[in-house]
Write a structure and sequence with these properties.
The protein has about 150 residues and is mainly β. Helix content is about 10%, strand content about 45%. The strands form two sheets. A five-stranded antiparallel β-sheet has the order 1-9-8-5-4, with no helix packed on it. Strands 2-3-6-7 form a four-stranded antiparallel β-sheet, with no helix packed on it.
Length: about 150
């Protein structure tokens, strides 16, 4: 009987942990993106000389309120999140705003990829790093609100 009770308690704890585990998370922009150019219309008498794959390195990341195609880019602020000073902070409070937020990873060739930010997050900040393989960008998000924004 004790074993059964212990097992049930452990299952309950595991379930509760999975429900409340999204306190913070991170979205990493890939260091490189490979892509192909698609021609919509080729003038009569012309043909494509080469079907080539291009690779472009990560450049920067940004945040958008609603779909990035609507061009509602958000301006970052400086402040504190989870007790740490950050230089590039965005508020993404879904309680105040009804449209979702997106992170956009931009690459040197003008190529960009987007990802929706989890609805439970309230603030996000960018972290950049660089090594011999190139520049890396990551968006860290928290369920806590940013403080001392300026």
């Amino acid at each position: 009987m004790k074993g059964k009770r212990l097992y049930s308690t452990m299952i309950a704890i595991a379930c509760l942990a999975s429900v409340f585990s999204v306190n913070a998370y991170q979205i990493d922009c890939p260091k490189e993106m490979s892509f192909k150019i698609k021609f919509e219309e080729i003038p009569e008498g012309w043909e494509i000389s080469e079907d080539k794959t291009y690779t472009s390195s990560f450049s920067t990341l940004g945040l958008f309120h609603d779909k990035p195609a609507l061009k509602a880019s958000l301006v970052p602020a400086k402040g504190t999140i989870d007790g740490q000073q950050q230089k590039l902070i965005w508020e993404v409070n879904h309680v105040k705003d009804t449209a979702p937020y997106y992170v956009v990873c931009q690459y040197g060739s003008g190529v960009a990829i987007t990802k929706k930010i989890d609805l439970s997050m309230k603030s996000c900040w960018a972290v950049y790093s660089e090594d011999k393989d190139g520049k890396q960008g990551a968006l860290h998000c928290s369920v806590n609100e940013a403080k001392n924004l300026h």
